[in-house]
Amino acid sequence: MVTKVSVIGRRFGALECISERWYEKRETYTITNVMCRCDCGNTHRYRWSNLISSRSTACKKCGYAKHMTHGASRTSAHNYFLKFRKENKLCDEWQNFKTFNDWKKKNIGDKKLYVRPADPTKPMGPSNFKLEKTATKLKREKYLCYMTMREWASLLGISYQRVSQLVKCYGSIEEVLRNRGQEHLIPEFYHAAQED
C-alpha cells in the first residue's frame, strides 16, 4: 500500500505549501493543485507540476519585482543608454543603466550635449569624459533623437500606429516632421550635424 506523504510546510523558493494536494478533473486530464503562501504573505493556488519543476518559485508580485531591474525599458533615456553603450567602450560603473542615467541627470540634465572620452585609449567613465555641443564624426543616423515611437506619437498627438505608418511611408521621423510642418521638433543638434 502506498502511503500519502504530506506536503504541508514544504518550500519551493519563496513559496511554502499550506495545504495538501488536491486534484481537479478536466475533460481529458487531471491537474494537481496546492495552496502556497509566499514570503511576502500572499496566498495562491499553484499547480504541483510548476512547483516541482521550479517554474513557480514566488508569487506574481515578488516574481515581477525580482525580474524588474530599473523599470525604464523602452523609454528615451534607456534607448539612449543602449545606443551609447553599443558605440562606446565604457568603464564597469557605466555599464549599469541606473548608475549612468543618475550621472547623466546630475551632470548634463536636459542640455543637448554629447559625452565623449577625454582619452580615447581608456574606457569612458566619470573620470574620463568631455562634453561637446555638437556631435562631430558620427553618422547621420546617430543624430536622431532617441525617442521611442510611442513618445513621438504622444508628442504629435496621433496614434502609435499612425506614426509607424508615416515612418514607413517617409523613411524617417525627421521626414515625417517636415511633411507635417513641424520642423521645429527636429532636435537642434540634427541641424548642426547636417552642416558638417
> How many structural domains can be distinguished in the coordinates?
3
Total number of strands: 7
Count of helix runs: 8
Structural class: alpha+beta
Distance, first to last CA: 86 Å
Mean pLDDT: 76
Q: What is the quaternary state of this protein?
A: single chain
Q: How would you sum up the major sheet?
A: 5 strands, antiparallel
SSE sequence, one letter per element: EEEEEHHHHEEHHHH
User: What overall geometry do the principal axes of the alpha carbons give?
Assistant: elongated
Radius of gyration: 26 Å
Uncertain ranges: 136-144, 188-196
β-sheet strand percentage: 5-15%
What is the helical fraction, as a range of percent? 25-40%
Layout of secondary structure:
Blueprint: E1 11-12, E2 15-17, E3 22-25, E4 30-38, E5 43-47, H1 48-52, H2 60-67, H3 76-87, H4 97-107, E6 114-116, E7 130-132, H5 149-156, H6 160-170, H7 173-179, H8 188-195
Antiparallel strand pairs: 1-2, 2-4, 3-4, 4-5, 6-7
Helix pairs in contact: 5-6
Describe the 3D structure.
- This protein has 196 residues and is α+β, with helices and mostly antiparallel strands.
- It folds into three domains: 11-67, no CATH class; 73-133, no CATH class; 137-196, no CATH class.
- Helix content is 36%, strand content 15%.
- The protein has eight helices and seven strands.
- The chain has helices at 48-52, 60-67, 76-87, 97-107, 149-156, 160-170, 173-179, 188-195, and strands spanning 11-12, 15-17, 22-25, 30-38, 43-47, 114-116, 130-132.
- The strands form two sheets. Strands 1, 2, 3, 4 and 5 form a five-stranded antiparallel sheet that branches.
- Strand 1 (11-12) and strand 2 form a beta hairpin.
- Helix 5 packs across helix 6 (160-170).
- The longest helix is centred in the middle third of the chain and has 12 residues, at 76-87.
- It is elongated, with a radius of gyration of 26 Å.
- The N and C termini lie far apart (86 Å).
